Amino acid sequence: MTRRVALKLSGEAFADPDLGYGINPKTVQAVADEVAGVVVDGFEVAMVVGGGNIFRGISSQAAGMDRANADYMGMLATVINALAMRDALERAGVEARVQSAIKIEQVAEPYIRLRAIRHLEKGRVVVFAGGTGNPYFTTDTTVALRAAEIGADVVLKATRVDGVHEADPAEVPDAPLIPELTYMEVIERGLRVMDTTAITMCMENDLPIRVFNIAVPGNIAMAIRGEPVGTLVR
To answer: Fewest Cβ atoms nearer than 10 Å: which of 61, 62, 101, 128?
Structure first.
């Protein structure tokens, strides 16, 4: 059977490693090259992108901006990242389409579930932008929702750490990695894998979650192929 995956990329995956913001073409191209390498082998890849490298709605809302307005601005930022990823994927030799939950038809298709599935069946990468199209929902929830809608086999969450640890690696550098967890363990222990809405949606739809470090070359391809990398939640 063809393996279909939903890959979540945070805005930080697009940013300059030294600056932490903006779009670094070399960083984006490195991700696209890895994805292209597995697509040509027959894997179907859908991607959900964040926009934190351009605009972080949560921090702006905390600073006094209206939450809904801040979230819409963050959704527009994801469209910019999606266009950058599509360009990089096509330069890597695979066809790609951007589908946005916010109508912006001059640059992206509107999100249509059956059309997205058809693109995947034809070997195209689909990049989902605009979140769910609604404020108050994170891109974690978006990837859980889209993965369920398109019938993905797994949700892949690319992060800047090796997986889920017993403690925050930024505070406890030698905190041991947890190779496997259940959904309920994540919720009960308050582990910051994904937000609770996303975890619950994955649990209800029997969608395993693989959390891994995007900064390690080859990890994206390994995760898409189903090889053991990072932490598995199921």
So the answer is: 62
For residue 160, which of 72, 73, 53, 4 has the smallest C-alpha distance?
53
The CA distance from 210 to 178, in Å, is: 12
Predicted TM-score of the model (pTM): 0.92
Q: How far apart are CA 199 and CA 208, in angstroms?
A: 10
Q: What's the token pair of residue 171?
A: 């505070």
Q: Which tokens sit at 15?
A: 């940013």
Query: Which domains, from first to last, does the chain contain?
Result: 4-233 (3.40.1160.10)
**Sheet (strand 109-110) strand order:** 109-110, 96-100, 125-129, 44-49, 4-9, 154-159, 209-213, 231-233, 180-181
Q: What is the pLDDT of residues 26-74, one digit of tens each?
A: 999 999 999 999 999 999 999 999 998 888 756 655 567 888 998 999 9
pLDDT digits (tens, 9 = 90+) for 115-142: 999 999 999 999 999 999 999 999 999 9
Q: How open is the CA angle 15-216-149, to the nearest 5 degrees?
A: 70
